[in-house]
Design goal:
GO biological process, one term: carbohydrate metabolic process
GO molecular function: hydrolase activity, hydrolyzing O-glycosyl compounds
Pfam families: Glyco_hydro_31_2nd, Glyco_hydro_31_3rd
Oligomer: single chain
CATH superfamily of the largest domain: Glycosidases
Keywords: Glycosidase, Hydrolase
Structural class: alpha+beta
Family: Belongs to the glycosyl hydrolase 31 family.
Largest sheet: 6 strands, parallel
């Protein structure tokens, strides 16, 4: 059913109907429909991925090409769009059919995927260890420690402040005296190398700023002046990513890093809609969310890429990480990983990565002189991340864990690598169909009553994962669908059933469906 020309839909919910989608950060509140909830995507997103999409366990979906407002209340869903049409499609079956129809009709997959190594080896982001002071020597030291402590080599990400200035994408010579030698060494050790970047330009770098302003490459405010925006690192101008020549200039800077030093790719951060205004002047006038989308499109030029904030672009070969989490057990930390990861998949983002293991919120460390790592939490973070399509370390496990807990963490990295071929096979499948790699129980088993199960998930259709996410817990209850399942501990479980299993700190419970 299509409401041609209509900007609002009022949808009566069916009995037992559950909904997912919209803003990924709301995954902790999904499924929608059981209690009142509202979200206005026309005023922005919550620092993570979002899309104008809602999908239902009863085979229905809602889509708009533009930002939407939606609310669940009194047994109904109301969706409104100020800029265009809202579409309701009724497939009349289940969550999977609704999602596949929405993907086919509105964000078809491209047949391509990010570099295969994202799915087969861990990532190592230097953010927490080096913060704003990365150097060539410290980067090499971190990589050497990865190998010395028995972790596999993987994708290493050099985070903020490796460059001369925001918008001057050249290595700081005082910190990186020989970037080519560094990259060559990291490659010899088995690592790929990514650099952090952003769309911001420092107005204090006079020569660079003057050139970009003269060329018209910078976003302007409503008065026609270069827009200066406050973000977490101060005040900066913003590259106009709707201007093809501006994007070509920016990619030319990154291309020089690839050509001169062998850099493999880029973490493209800070494209959040909050840094744009509806009144801004750009080469192509856009809603702030759509400026976020324009920044995401830049990353399609690189097979090694990573985003945190993204609007639309589902089905595209972009790595999407969950936003920075706290070093806590609650829904600001570990407890949010699974529900928000499931929301990523059901919003169309298949190539997903949880936040950095142990949490990536620098404030946990920076603003708390008494901060101490909870070793149990760190291990459970690693276990929860291990069977996501990707996993990412930052805080060095060998620095903060004793030998026992370190061994448990190493086991998670090995497990991820051992299942790398499985993740890669599913990633190729997703590149053709759009299907999530990490799947909700209700997506695969629509008749099992699993809509409210948000602390376990499936990898594809055949691997059931049930991490422990509660402090001090050494067992957990698992909902098994109707099949026979063989556990990591060798046990056989015949579903459907609910069973309590032993889960000592050394164990991540996971099961493979038997033929």
């Amino acid at each position: 059913m299509r409401n041609m020309g209509s900007q609002q839909l009022h949808i009566q919910l069916k009995e037992g109907e559950a909904w997912w989608g919209g803003d990924v950060t709301d995954g902790i509140h999904m499924p929608f429909g059981r209690k009142p909830f509202e979200r206005d995507l026309t005023i922005g997103i919550s620092g993570n991925q979002a899309a104008p999409l809602l999908v239902s366990s009863h085979g229905r979906y809602v889509w708009s090409e533009h930002p939407i407002r939606y609310s669940f209340a009194n047994g109904a869903l109301t969706v409104a769009c100020d800029a265009g049409e809202v579409v309701l499609e009724d497939r009349g079956t289940d969550l999977r059919s609704a999602f596949l129809a929405s993907a086919k009709n509105h964000f078809p997959s491209t047949g391509t995927l990010p570099d295969a190594r994202f799915f087969t080896v861990p990532q190592y982001n230097l953010w927490i260890e080096l913060q704003y002071e990365p150097t060539q020597d410290k980067t090499i030291e971190y990589a050497e420690s990865v190998l010395a402590n028995g972790f596999p080599p993987g994708v290493i990400m050099i985070d903020d402040n490796w460059m001369e200035d925001y918008g001057v994408w050249k290595f700081r010579s005082d910190r990186f005296p020989d970037p080519k030698a560094m990259t060559d060494k990291l490659h010899e050790m088995g690592f790929q190398v990514m650099l952090w970047t952003c769309p911001f330009v420092s107005p204090d770098n006079a020569a660079n700023f003057r050139m970009l302003e003269r060329e018209g490459f910078l976003l302007q405010d409503e008065h026609g002046e270069v827009a200066i925006r406050r973000w977490w690192n101060g005040y900066s101008a913003v590259l106009d990513c709707t201007n093809k020549d501006a994007v070509d200039w920016y990619c030319g800077q990154l291309g020089q890093l690839i050509d001169d030093y062998g850099i493999d790719g880029f973490k493209l951060d800070a494209g959040d809609p909050e840094y744009y205004r509806a009144s801004d002047r750009s080469a192509v006038p856009l809603h702030p969310n759509e400026h976020c989308e324009a920044w995401a499109i830049v990353g399609l030029r690189y097979s090694f890429n990573e985003y945190r904030a993204c609007w639309k672009q589902a089905g595209q070969p972009l790595v999407q990480r969950l936003r920075d989490k706290n070093h806590t057990w609650d829904e600001n930390g570990l407890a949010s990983l699974i529900p928000n990861g499931l929301a990523q998949g059901l919003t169309g983002y298949a190539y997903i990565c949880p936040d950095m293991i142990g949490g990536g919120m620098l404030g946990d460390v920076e603003n708390n002189p008494d901060f101490r790592v909870d070793q149990e939490l760190f291990v459970r973070y690693a276990q929860c991340s291990a069977l996501f399509p990707m996993m990412q370390f930052s805080t060095a496990p060998w620095r903060v864990l004793d030998q026992e807990h370190l061994e448990y963490c190493k086991a998670t990295a090995r497990l991820h690598s051992e299942l790398g071929d499985t993740f890669l096979e599913l990633a190729h499948h997703s590149s053709q169909t759009g299907e999530p790699i990490m799947r909700h129980m209700a997506y695969v088993f629509p008749d099992g009553g699993f809509e409210e199960v948000t602390d376990q998930f499936l990898v594809g259709d055949d691997i059931l994962v049930a991490p422990v996410i509660m402090k001090g817990t050494r067992s957990r209850t698992i909902s098994f669908p109707g099949a026979e399942w063989q556990g990591d501990d060798g046990s056989i479980v015949a579903g459907p059933c609910t069973r309590s299993v032993e889960a000592p700190l050394s164990r991540l419970p996971w099961y493979r469906r038997r033929e």
